């Protein structure tokens, strides 16, 4: 009789950054539900999701060097076997308007801090001799340029590239590194995104969100749980022979 590889995460220690966002909260909830111990972090002082005996939350400002270094120490102490590397920030501005302040902020969190956390988790996994799984959050924006989202697109392309390089470097240690590229996901952040599109494209509030949902081949925006389920797959033995891959959770928006 065939025994399917389990999605059970009992005995795993999952670390989630950007835990107060819609996708981060969903990942925390899914990991806890499947038996993992979860360490979660975001910039806010309290976790906005569930209260659970196996959840430990700590606030860090990853754009501040002191906050970043404190977070890296925390990662080392947590000894994760799974990293859900999700913290990121979004902003808009075309090539003529996207200034270096915006560049520094987006690359500071989406690339510099992302890389530092991934490195700290990888070092901890190697020290534990753990067959770990690192899951980086990319975006459909990382697969193509967009006129109004130049810096953000570039940061997410960097996430995909670092995922591939890290996967090759860590394969001898039996550590898998993959990424998820969400498409348009209906999270609280979309209120901010929609307002930016209203400003730059002269649209009514709510119009862009409605348009992008209708433009998805499946016909609607995804939910945070759609991304969290992909994270569970990558964290579990279901994906034990996958590394260096980027999974699109985008309703068919990007053909790979």
Q: Secondary-structure map with pairings?
A:
Blueprint: E1 13-17, H1 22-33, E2 37-42, E3 55-59, H2 65-78, E4 82-85, H3 100-128, E5 133-137, H4 150-170, E6 176-182, H5 189-201, H6 207-215, H7 224-235, E7 246-249
Parallel strand pairs: 1-2, 1-4, 2-3, 4-5, 5-6, 6-7
Helix pairs in contact: 1-7, 2-3, 3-4
What does this structure look like?
The chain is an alpha/beta fold and 256 residues long. It is 43% helix and 14% strand. The chain has helices at residues 22-33, 65-78, 100-128, 150-170, 189-201, 207-215, 224-235; strands spanning 13-17, 37-42, 55-59, 82-85, 133-137, 176-182, 246-249. A 7-stranded parallel sheet has the order 3-2-1-4-5-6-7, with helices on both faces. α1 (22-33) links the parallel β1 (13-17) and β2 (37-42). α3 packs parallel to α4 (150-170). The longest helix has 29 residues, at 100-128. It is globular. The relative contact order is 0.15. The mean pLDDT is 96.
